[in-house]
């Protein structure tokens, strides 16, 4: 049913008096806003489903149609021009609604395409970001591997360098020790040779001096003079005590005096031809640098000096008197 505006006093035309196509278009016009709202609603109200929108759109026109049928019975009849004008307005409104619906569908498709493009762009961006992240991880892993290899190589090089330096230091130490050992050995050999040479020279000097001394002793013996004189510690002549005595060795034998001032009064005389044996360092003397004279009558005299050289000179002089 079509109802004129309140300012218009023309009679309302009932849908029962209109042709069938006009009534259908009127109902389409009534449904068009609801259908358009149902089409656009998903973009404006994302929470309502498509089936609910369609059901609501079909329910509203039917209710309006029932209300219109009741009102048409009461509304006055309209003229053919008004009906034609109404039909024209309805057609224009339908065309406008169709354009708007097409535009809404186009806009919805465009938005859907834009959303799809955005999703594709987002997915592409995420894939690119993931690829970049993986490439960055691979690059960092490769750099870490290279750095680790370089670090290991550097550690190996440093270890080899340290080992080389250690071996060189050990070799230098060994050479220095060997040179020091050779130097010490050479010094020892030189010192040994020098000591041996000095000992040989001393021995030669001793032998030469002994020869000269022996020659002097023999000359003094043959001339009847004093071959050797000095002081000595002596034990004998029936005494067990050590006594300090002045002595003189002549060709005839050994004379013992109380002191050098009493050289003209001998206390005891040991003839050279009575000496049977001279024993060096006898046990009964109990002192070093000692010797013992054993006489033919088994009498014994013990002598000792403070030095070996003094003892040797006295023994040498006594032996010289025994070899006449």
UniProtKB/TrEMBL annotation:
It comes from the Eukaryota. InterPro entries: PH-like_dom_sf (IPR011993), PH_domain (IPR001849). Residues 46-55 have a biased composition (Polar residues). Gene3D superfamilies: Pleckstrin-homology domain (PH domain)/Phosphotyrosine-binding domain (PTB). Residues 41-119 are annotated as: Disordered. It holds the Pfam family PH. Residues 79-119 have a biased composition (Basic and acidic residues). Residues 225-323 form the PH domain. SUPFAM superfamilies: PH domain-like. CDD domains: PH. PROSITE patterns: PH_DOMAIN (PS50003). Transmembrane segments: none annotated. This is Enoyl-CoA hydratase/carnithine racemase. The lineage of its organism: Eukaryota, Fungi, Dikarya, Basidiomycota, Pucciniomycotina.
């Amino acid at each position: 049913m079509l109802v004129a505006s309140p300012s218009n006093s023309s009679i309302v035309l009932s849908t029962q008096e209109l042709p069938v196509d006009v009534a259908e278009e009127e109902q389409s016009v009534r449904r068009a806003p609801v259908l358009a709202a149902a089409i656009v609603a998903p973009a404006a109200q994302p929470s309502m489903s498509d089936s609910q929108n369609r059901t609501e759109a079909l329910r509203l026109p039917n209710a309006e149609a029932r209300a219109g049928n009741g009102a048409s019975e009461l509304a006055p009849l309209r003229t053919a021009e008004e009906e034609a004008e109404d039909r024209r307005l309805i057609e224009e409104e339908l065309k406008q609604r169709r354009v708007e619906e097409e535009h809404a569908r186009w806009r919805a498709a465009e938005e859907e395409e834009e959303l799809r493009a955005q999703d594709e762009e987002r997915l592409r961006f995420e894939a690119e970001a993931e690829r970049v992240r993986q490439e960055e991880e691979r690059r960092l892993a490769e750099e870490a591997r290279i750095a680790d290899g370089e670090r290991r190589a550097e550690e190996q090089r440093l270890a080899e360098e340290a080992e080389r330096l250690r071996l060189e230091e050990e070799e230098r130490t060994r050479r220095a020790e060997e040179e020091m050992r050779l130097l010490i050995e050479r010094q020892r050999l030189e010192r040994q040779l020098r000591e041996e040479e000095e000992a040989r020279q001393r021995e030669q000097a001793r032998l030469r001096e002994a020869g000269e001394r022996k020659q002097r002793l023999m000359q003094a013996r043959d001339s009847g003079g004093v071959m050797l004189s000095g002081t000595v510690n002596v034990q004998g002549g029936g005494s067990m005590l050590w006594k300090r005595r002045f002595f003189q060795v002549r060709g005839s034998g050994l004379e013992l005096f109380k002191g050098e001032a009493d050289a003209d009064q001998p206390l005891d005389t040991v003839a050279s031809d009575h000496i049977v044996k001279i024993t060096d360092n006898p046990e009964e003397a109990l002192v070093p640098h000692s010797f013992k004279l054993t006489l033919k009558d088994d009498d014994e005299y013990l002598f000792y000096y403070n030095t070996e050289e003094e003892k040797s000179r006295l023994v040498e002089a006594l032996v010289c008197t025994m070899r006449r």
